[in-house]
Amino acid sequence: MSKDLAVQSSSPAPASQPSEANIRELVDAFYKRVDDDPLLGPIFSSELSGRWDAHLAKMTTFWSSLVLGTKDYRGNVQEAHRPLGNIEPQHFARWLSLFLDTVQNRYEPAAAVQFMEPALRIAQSLQLSKFGWDYRIPDTQLALLASLKRLRRGEPAGHETEADLPDRSSGAPFPVNVTGVENNGS
Ligand code: HEM
């Protein structure tokens, strides 16, 4: 496996492997975009006033737990979002578009998928909690999640359908694992 020679430019060369250091950079870059965003910025700045540093550190631990398996994150993602009022579908769409774009800019595809799939899965779970179990997750999110699952399994890209997704006919909730961490008992 050849090491990438970092080409000096305004943005870093895409990383082939997640590491604690590049996860911290991802978190910083993502929340900088969130902070600058006219839709999301005001929500985060009012909720996190005076607590940004702690939030960035917590989110680095969160993603490291998910992607590197460090298991240091102690928290409850659902509970953290429960008090947030006035959150609408457009906020999730914006959050996801900024996050997925930031990840895509900073990681090679195989590494990027490791962030994207849990982000979409957790976003689904948060949306169902916020908007009700019969809320219809936007098709773009379903299609993207299905294609990421295929990628993760090493299957060729194909015509994506909902066949890959858990059955949720009649508005049944997904059996979503909220933390995204596989519980293998250790
Ligand atoms: C509309 C979209 C979202 C908004 C407005 C939002 C907002 C927030 C805010 C304000 C906090 C800080 C809570 C606090 O400390 O008081 C937070 C925490 C957090 N968010 Fe989000 N969030 C969104 C979507 C997501 C998604 C899709 C994920 C999935 C990865 C996520 C993961 C987290 C995590 C892990 C925490 C830390 C939870 C803890 O305290 O342990 N958020 N979010």
Automatic annotation (TrEMBL):
Keyword Metal-binding: yes
The keyword Transport appears for this protein: yes
Top-level division of the source organism's lineage: Bacteria
Pfam families: Bac_globin
Gene3D superfamilies the record matches: Globins (1.10.490.10)
Annotated region (Disordered), positions in chain: 155-186
InterPro entries, per the entry: Globin-like_sf, Globin/Proto, Hemoglobin_trunc
Residue stretches of biased makeup (Basic and acidic residues): 155-167
UniProtKB keywords: Heme, Iron, Metal-binding, Transport
Molecular functions per Gene Ontology: heme binding; metal ion binding; oxygen binding
Protein name (Swiss-Prot/TrEMBL): Globin
Species of the source: Caballeronia sordidicola
Organism taxonomic ancestry: Bacteria, Pseudomonadati, Pseudomonadota, Betaproteobacteria, Burkholderiales
